[in-house]
Amino acid sequence: MDHTSRIRTAWISLRNRRRSPELSEVTQRLIREADTGALQRAGIVRVVVAGIMLLSVLLVTYGIELANPMARKQIAAAELTLALFGVSGWMSAWLASKRIAVKQLPIFTAVLDALLVLGNLAYSHWGLGVPGGLFAVFPVTWVVPITLAAVAIHYQPRLQIMVALIYVAGLSLLAFGGETLSPTERREDLSEINAVFSDQANLVRLAMIFSLALILILVARQGRVLLERAVRETTLRVNLTRYLPRELAPVLTEQAFASLRQGRRAHVTVLFVDMRASTSFGESMDPTRLAVFITSFRRRVLRAASRHGGVIDKFTGDGALILFGVPGEGEDDAKRAIACGRTLLQLIQRWNAKRQFDPPVRVGIGIHTGEVFCGVVGDESRLEFTVVGETVNIASRIEQATKSTDCEILASQETVEEAGDADLWCEVAHEPLPGVTRNMVLLKPV
Hints:
By secondary structure, this protein is α+β, with helices and mostly antiparallel strands. The chain has helices spanning 2-18, 25-61, 69-97, 105-127, 143-152, 157-176, 183-192, 199-240, 254-262, 278-284, 287-307, 333-355, 390-405, 413-419; strands spanning 264-275, 311-316, 319-324, 363-377, 384-388, 409-412, 425-427, 442-445.
């Protein structure tokens, strides 16, 4: 039984090692962008390479009268193959630019390239009667490493393996599928196709080497660009985590960060939460227990904010400022803020029941919706993400009003109306909010 358990454990461990680690949303986004760019570049490369090789074929055959019908047919087949090669490249680049079938395009184009090359060789073998064992002498065979290099642009090892197997299988079928030639027959066949060793054929081969070099340069350049971008993104994210809310740092790109650096106005819902009578807990607890207590409180605030997509701008001692609508505005920001407030009250209630605090932990929550300025301010030595504006001040005053109204949660009329929950709230009498000139209608849950 123990032996069977060890085998099962080893098998599970092996499967886990083979399984690719889950990628973050940011990494997946970067890979999608890289795949789309690679598809466009690969398509353009196919068009350029097809143009170079087709032009070389036309140049070396220009003004030459070919008496051999087989040579004329082979050249016509080569021109058609190159034309289709270019058309497939243009189509893949166009589809990639429109974000159409991005996942399927690499497989489709790579397989199509292999079929075009093998189809050309098969035509020479079965259509024109050229022995398959002589496939290596034809210039079209040199297209094989070019197409393999083009597949490398996509950085997909499985695709590279699949295409390589297609070529190995197809060329093996050509080389060994027919009868074996004797040395005499091989010399006779080569004498009939001696044009493949001419200066013109060698010029075509040189054009193919040039095309291969261009593709490999592109592959190396693309790899370098991806490496530099990954390093920049990683460095940016490490720096951002020093002063940005932890929910924002992983999703910001360089462009989004630049936008925050300049600052912008945004329509958000602001939630303030503050612990009631926290000084009594501080006086009755030793420093170690107090640190654990504050950490536990913040953990519950984090849990409520994370559950409803809120961004914690900052913790203020025993309170917190949570934003809904950053970095991007949503139609349900107000609704999520209210749900976050309710969830937080439930978590605090369970906490009290679990720990039997005396007196019990109580909080005040104020929610308001409106326009704020948000951005990264300060110099390079001390940057800080901040939101400022009347909306923030009003939300803070609403949270303070929970003390005089003896309500754990209050929301402005603007927030409740935007959330579409007017039937679940009722107006509460309150004193004018300090520092707020306009009349504010505050609501509490029914």
